[in-house]
What does this fold into?
Amino acid sequence: MIRKVIRLQKEEGIIPEGSSLLIAFSGGVDSVVLVDVILELKDFFRLKRIALAHFNHMIRDEAFRDEWFCKRFAKERGLEIFTGREDVRSRAREEKRNLEETARDLRYAFLRRTKEEQNFDLIATAHHLSDLVETTLIWMVRGAGIEGLLGFDPKEGDVVRPLYRVSKEEITEYAKAKGLRWVEDKTNYDLRFFRNRIRHRVVPVLKEVNRNLEETFFRMRRILKDEDEILRSMAERVLVEARVEGGCLTAEVVRKAPVAIQRRVIREWSGVRNLSKIDQIRCLLFRGGEVILGNGLKAVRKGPLLCLKKFS
Amino acid sequence: MIRKVIRLQKEEGIIPEGSSLLIAFSGGVDSVVLVDVILELKDFFRLKRIALAHFNHMIRDEAFRDEWFCKRFAKERGLEIFTGREDVRSRAREEKRNLEETARDLRYAFLRRTKEEQNFDLIATAHHLSDLVETTLIWMVRGAGIEGLLGFDPKEGDVVRPLYRVSKEEITEYAKAKGLRWVEDKTNYDLRFFRNRIRHRVVPVLKEVNRNLEETFFRMRRILKDEDEILRSMAERVLVEARVEGGCLTAEVVRKAPVAIQRRVIREWSGVRNLSKIDQIRCLLFRGGEVILGNGLKAVRKGPLLCLKKFS
It folds into this structure.
């Protein structure tokens, strides 16, 4: 497993030498292994500083037990730890939002805040290859184009994922072999609920046929990723050429591009991700009319231009 | 359901007016519904001639009962039927091949032979949207690039699939509503075994989250298909430019293309579909050496050229 972490770093250089690293730490097996591996590879990574950040979502009864575990773990390892708390369930209710998404947003807000205040270079999360498989399947089922199938990257902005190439099995084996202790996360709500079903009911069936499912997804992803980049830069060029003052697009310029590029240009320009909506907007390249986009915006064909307008 | 068949024909025109159609007929619910729908839409499709073709794989005890059912069905409907038989299991054993693939190859050979001998224009099969979902998942699990994720087309060469946009549920509902009779295919072997697991254990879980799973896959596929076409034609252009006499490629021309296009050029040129093999061959663009491809061929870097050679 350690080998895969080293290989990822050598191939993709996700953590620059001399970085300071804030590790997102839930106390679960993934993050316990992440910390252990990073401490093992401290010299290899040449890190300037390492600390943990734990966010208490206050959703479950065990949340405070987990927070206590994390603090004790940090103390045992001689690591700094920053903790934050928020009653995520109440916030979600107030804002009428999905619990999982609210939890995620508040957690990342806490991590970013801590990173800025404490002057860290990077946030490290314990996302691994089995997460990638699950995420890809989830996006596939919910309906996404190529970028849904790409899941997440080993490095996205200031977030790095050193366990990116490691499967859950390898993580658990490593934890057991080293006699590590961790807390179990028994949460089972909203999106997590679906993820759990994918994890426990879908992935095992797929693995009966392909024991190297994770590796297969990893390879597939690399190919799709490279292909995506080509299409993305083609769309970018069209977008730059088509854009006029006021943020409108010259319909004719977009119309000349292949259909697949038209879709990407419109998604990039309008921010709309829903596929049938995108195709509706695409029709405005060829004829007059307007399409309501939600969030108070509509796409309108005005003479030679395609524009976004507020409506009330 | 009929509406979806009409819509596919209107949008994609898979069956030209005045065609003669040989319908692959197993006697299962899919193919019974296919025949029924085509007879209902006889005027709409303006078909010159319709006949059935049944291939008896002789794998199961019920195979002869099925053949008898098919003949009687044809008689009741006043349709011509052509039948073929082959002991698929023995053939697979003799040729040391996978049973499912052997069955498929022999079935298609029979269909093509009948089509040619009897002067039909097209073969119609009962593949539907739920098959497409299963096929996509199977390819995804087995490891495929974008083209695995594309599954199959509504029209491929001389094969057309009028039920392409229809889900299995809609087919079964239609069959029950019209009081149709059919035979059950209980085969459960090899690849079919995996397909059945996908069908009965994976798809239902995915549908708990997205009841419109089939439609979602259909939309995703349309996008991927359009994007695939762009990449395919880019690769084709590079291939044409790079190819020299004797079938070798000018390494430098391929090298200048983006990585994703390099991969596609090499796959197209070498016929190799295994991803890590393709990346091995790709390395020959940058340095000397050779890669064994199996089937008695190897890829060799010779000066400025990349060539395929036989080896013994």
About this structure: The first strand of chain A starts at residue 20 and ends at 24.
